[in-house]
Amino acid sequence: MVNISDIKVGKVIKNEFNQITRELLKEYAKASGDTNPIHTSDEVAIKAGLKGVIGHGLFSFGFISKLFEDFLNQEEYGKIINIDISMRGMVRCGDLLVTEATVTKIEGNKVFFDVKQTTLTNVDIKDKDGNLVEQFEAGERGYISDKDIERNLIKTKEVDKGTLTYRERISMPGNAVIELYN
């Protein structure tokens, strides 16, 4: 149960999805009718200058809608009034897609959120001597650009196998408004 009295400015709701595969994008293309081959064919995507397939924008947006639908228990506790986002970054196979919404304002039964969808793209793992332990698609295909480096989007963290290098990029910023029923 979600009550307006339980919501405070600064509250964060969040979901993560890490199962983006070519097969899933093909299924989405078929279901949505968006069969643009940059979403399903590496060959076509490469010819278009993309280095590999990218997720559909509305596929990614669906996780934003799902975040609020789950929070509202499919409109049992309230409804979505508005979601306004900008599509800024590509989502690729193997990405971890993190969707967060932070409460910025409450007016009556309306709750306003800043929305941020971020992709985490694994590049490689190296051991303590700098030897390659594992390389991911982003490393193999050269998804990381000089622009990513200049914008300080490349991060590292220690994992069991060594040092993981990954890109963390906001793919969809925006805002949303929901209305609670109580």
Strand content: 35-45%
Uncertain stretches: none
Cα distance spanning the termini:
10 Å
Derived structural class: alpha+beta
CATH architecture: Roll
| Main sheet properties | 7 strands, antiparallel
- The tally of structural domains comes to 1
Characterize the overall form.
Answer: globular
CATH topology: Thiol Ester Dehydrase, Chain A
CATH top level is Alpha Beta
Order of helices and strands: EHHHEEEEHHEE
* Mean pLDDT, all residues: 97
What is the tally of beta strands?
7
Q: How helical, in percent, are the residues? A: 10-25%
* Rounded radius of gyration (Å): 19 Å
**Total of DSSP H or I helical runs spanning 4+ residues:** 5
The H-level CATH homologous superfamily, spelled out, is Hotdog Thioesterase
Task: Walk me through what this model shows.
With 182 residues, this protein is an alpha+beta fold. Helix content is 23%, strand content 40%. It has a single domain (10-180), classed as Hotdog Thioesterase (Thiol Ester Dehydrase, Chain A, Roll), CATH 3.10.129.10. Strands 1, 2, 3, 4, 5, 6 and 7 form a seven-stranded antiparallel beta sheet that branches. The longest helix has 15 residues, at 57-71.
Give a quick summary of the entry.
Helix content is 23%, strand content 40%. With 182 residues, the chain is α+β, with helices and mostly antiparallel strands. Strands 1, 2, 3, 4, 5, 6 and 7 form a seven-stranded antiparallel beta sheet that branches.
Entry keywords:
single chain; alpha+beta; Thiol Ester Dehydrase, Chain A; 23% helix; 182 residues; 7-stranded antiparallel sheet
